[in-house]
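COURSE: Structural Biology Practicum
ASSIGNMENT: Worksheet 4, Part C
STUDENT ID: 0417
INSTRUCTIONS: Below are two proteins. For each, the amino acid sequence is given first, followed by its structure token string. Answer the questions at the end about the second protein only.

PROTEIN I
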Amino acid sequence: MSAASALSKSASKTVPAPSTPAAGSSTLSPGQHGIKEHSDGRFGFVPVQTRSDRFKSVNVADFEAVTGREAVWKHSPVAKFSDLTAGDLDGSRYEVESTPSADISVEWVPRTDARIGTAGLPEERAAANAWSVFDEALAITVNGEEAKEITVTRSVLGNTARGAHTIIEAKPFSQATVILQNMGEARLSENVEIILGESANLTVVSLQEWDDSAVHLANHFASVGRDARLKHVVVSLGGNVVRVNPSVRLAGPGSDTLLLGLYFADAGQHLEQQVYVFHDAPKSRSRVNYKGALQGQDARTVWIGDVLIGNKAAGTDSYEQNRNLVLSEGTRADSIPNLEIETGDIVGAGHASATGRFDDEQLFYLQARGITEEEARRLVVRGFLTEVVQQIGAPELEARLQLAIEAELIGTDDK
């Protein structure tokens, strides 16, 4: 949706776009959902009809070369990161720093670790390329029922094209907040697996404050066990191309997830997030709330939200929404919510999307009370984004993000 577009809203059920079959794979089945193959050159293939049926593989050779016409890549500037989808990646260890925290261990483990591959598998070539090359995975393991917090920082990755793998495991009944802080230069494709045991309560924050030239492609796979709760937060402020795609499978009865996103795109930036929530167990609950702002020529954001309520997920309660605030001409925000329901026994399910400019009534209200137009605009933007910031649950990080948003707003009225 272009910056010049008027406010648009979507609350209807949609069907995800067909995906391109991978080389050597069987992603498409001739009789799926009763749909038959066409006789006009489809060569026996029927498009995938359900989000969970997408092809998955850890072998990069199983995926065709990325052209930008594929469903998962058609919104992305694929020419800017061809080295991450087709090139050789450095899968060796890299330098990390972590704050000390009781009952949380941070260590490197071999790729033979039993936890690897249990939360999810790659559905596209960049993720498979990273999966194919990593030597060791960074494992963050949470124990103990007392609440604690840890920050793991990467800031010296450099410009080498890299592949990486991270495991975050919350043992049964444990509680923690894990902040993944990304800074400096990077050309990185990575997979992050998040595993929650029974009744675990885990918050994972992925914070992208990269340098202006950085490229970061990330896929987060989460499996949430019985009565466990995952809060997953994506904050994207820095970088040239940043694409963080979380996929959450609510695998245990009573599992719960809250997925939050905050992004601010400046001139020339591409910030993308493709969110997938799979309700695969009864009485599961999900809420998705992503909010972003755009300013400057060719600022671009993409949000795709897929929710699948499976046939085993009786009693599901689900809702997703995406809101975008356009601050200048020359920007583009794509917002695509999708909802699939395979059982009629649900508590509720819905989705919404909106992209628009400032609310003139809000600006008039503030100006009528002696506030300048420039400050009024900043107050509106801060209020719009603060809703997400305040739900993170890490006071020091929340305060720092408020300052970062303020820094992004400097110069807004000149663009």
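PROTEIN II
(use this one for the questions)
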Amino acid sequence: MVSRVIPVEVFDLVIFGATGDLARRKILPGLYRRFLSGQITGESRIIGAARSEMDRAGFRELVAKAIAEFVAKDRQDPAVIAEFLDRLDYVSIDASKGEDGWHQLKEMMRPDVVRAFYFSVAPALFGELAEKLHSHEIANSDSRIVVEKPFGRDLGSARALNTVLASHFEERQIYRIDHYLGKETVQNLMAVRFANILFEPLWNSQFIDHVQITVAETVGVEGRGSYYDKSGAMRDMVQNHLMQLLCLIAMEPPYHFDPNAVRDEKLKVIRALQPVPAEDIVRGQYLPFKGAPGYLEDSENPESRTESYIALKVHIANWRWKGTPFYLRTGKKLRARASEIAITFKEPPHSIFDDAAGWRENVLVIRLQPDEGMNLTVMIKEPGPGGMRLMQVPLDMSFADALGPEVSDIPDAYERLIMDVIRGNQTLFMRGDEVEAAWAWTDPIIEGWESRGDRPRGYDQGSSGPEDALMLMHRDGRRWREIKE
């Protein structure tokens, strides 16, 4: 099966923070892969902008090293790399100081192509960049800006940031990026639900017992501990990544696969989220282990009450999901790196088999990483004589197996989302009111544990999290799925 590559319009893409880690690891190598695949054509250009004093040749050397390090060796074509590097330019700009570089950047802009500006910088600079692009008349009425998370740290700061951006750009021009929404499997969740009659009639509290969303990491916060200690797992992961996955699972069918139609339905889910009581929240910090530092050491704050792990039981107050809990968990230094959504269906209303037949639930698992794909477990008769014995077997679809070797050319999340920016398609990006609604639900949860003075529970590195998180489900007669690669 060959994936179709549809070229995008000619563009000028300016990457602010072009010498930073995100640009080097994801954005620039991703743009090279899209160029290699033929999706970037014509006279499109990529312009790096950062504080570093560097000329065009120096920037091209930096990008060449990034491609060598972060692109698979079998996709490094010297001739294509050379052609890609020819499309790069650079301008030295310090967004927080003076006017140097802005006139030069304006001169680089072409009037007849798409203009996009990627803010791969600290959120504190978003407003300054937006103001400078406006005051120097670099951005026009069709320009797009891409802003990275964190988009605020609470409702007040998110509203302030939205206000600043809205004073210079219309909502249709603002692309708030969440790379989880660019994953192939996340989008396939919508296809499975809304392009097949098989699941949607069952997609409600009558047939679904509960839903688990897990994002587990094996790494800690070393190297960014002081930053992470000001956010924690709730702000860093739940408010954005897990919230978006929850919305796609729980939303009503939109009238059309249209940016605002999809985001309208996601917004309804967020606004229907019920407050979460203290007993339905478990927070944790990883402990030291065999010489490896714990969270308190990594964060350089021995009194820290910031969580590196969180699990929540969430309810949605609407007809479709009344009584069906959603269990969310995410954490660092866990047993394996794995992200998945598991939809567990209820038992049949009446079993014609003896209890000894061994019934087990049907589960639809959507794997986001490391091996993207879907898995549906069903019950069948165990082969052989000896009576009716049931066993659980998977109907498994790994994208790499099902789609063949061409699957390697499917763009990763950042590649796909940047191409959507050039196309002007906001479907997979968060809208301003969506961000604010998420913070309106999140803030009281954080304020609650801060006012109570709750301390996170310690958990062992390489485990599945605090013991209290197991009890969160055990008391409901359920259990977490095993965290494994």
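ANSWER KEY EXCERPT:
Q1: Residues 181-410+430-474 form a domain with the Dihydrodipicolinate Reductase; domain 2 fold (CATH 3.30.360.10).
Q2: The chain has two domains: 11-148, 181-410+430-474.
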